[in-house]
Amino acid sequence: MALAITDALTRHDVIVWAVDPSTGQQTFAPFLPYLDWVEMTQAGGEEMIDALSQVITARADALGR
To answer: Which of 35, 30, 61, 60 has the alpha carbon at shortest distance from 48?
Structure first.
């Protein structure tokens, strides 16, 4: 997983979200300064998933311009 996150962080025009209510800081600690949105709770992860459809629509609209 670390390799995938590192690869994504080298791209431009990419945001990286992470959620892990089980091991949170243990998993993401090295990446925390570079991640756009991190949730360490189940409720926070659900909020992130709820926001995802709006982000996808906004991104698609931006790419269509």
So the answer is: 35
* Tokens 């409720």 found at: 43
Residue 44 has which token pair? 């926070």
Give the predicted TM-score (pTM) of the model.
0.78
> 17 near 38, Cβ under 8 Å?
yes
Domain with 9 in it = 2-64
Output DSSP code: residue 11: S
Distance CA 32, CA 44 (A): 16
Intervals of the chain under pLDDT 50: none
